[in-house]
What does this fold into?
Amino acid sequence: DTGVSQDPRHKITKRGQNVTFRCDPISEHNRLYWYRQTLGQGPEFLTYFQNEAQLEKSRLLSDRFSAERPKGSFSTLEIQRTEQGDSAMYLCASSPGLAGVVTGELFFGEGSRLTVL
Amino acid sequence: GQQVMQIPQYQHVQEGEDFTTYCNSSTTLSNIQWYKQRPGGHPVFLIQLVKSGEVKKQKRLTFQFGEAKKNSSLHITATQTTDVGTYFCAGRGLYNFNKFYFGSGTKLNVKP
It folds into this structure.
C-alpha cells in the first residue's frame, strides 16, 4: 500500500499522559499536514511541513502540541499533558506540493483516534 | 480570520432525488476543493476548482465555483445509496497556500 499511513489507529490514555502519533506520507510528497477532526466537524488545520521545515502552526495549537518531520520523511505529533478536550481524530495528509503552482490535493491517512479519560 | 461555512449540516433524501450542498467563504479564495468522507473513513479528494465561474462535472456530480471566488456548490443528480457520506469543501486563501480551511461538512443520508 503506497498511501498515507498513521500509527496508532486508536489510543486511549489518561489525562495528563503524553501521547505520540506517527505519520508516514506518500514517499514522493514533500508537503505534510496535520489536522484534527472532532465529531460533526470538518478537519481543523494544526500544522504544515514542507520537507523537514515546519512552515506554519495554527494559533489554536497550545504549546503542549509539538510536531516534527526529521529528514523530511515521516512525521510525529506529540501531545503533552493530555486533556479531555484533546480527544479527537488526528488526521495526517500529504501533498505533492508543486512550488508556485496552485494545486495539490490532500491525501489523507486513516487517522489516529485519541480518547483521553 | 478566514472562515468557510457550509450548509445544510444534514440532508436526508430518497434514493433518486437530487442533493446540493453550498459552501461560502468570508474571503476570496485562490481555489476550492471538495472531499467526501464515508462513515468511519477519512476524507477523499473529489475535485479542485480554480477559475472564477468554473463548472466541472463528474458523472452525476456537478461542482461550481462562484464568480467572486467566495462560494461553491456541489450538486448530485439522482442520488444513490453509494453517495452516503459527509461532503466537505476546503478553501485555500489568496495569500497563504499552506493550508486549506475546511467547512463543517454536509452529511448526506440516502434512503433506498
Observations:
- The interface with chain B takes residues 33, 35, 40-45, 48, 55-56, 91, 102-103, 105-111 of chain A (CB under 8 Å).
- The mean pLDDT of chain A is 91.
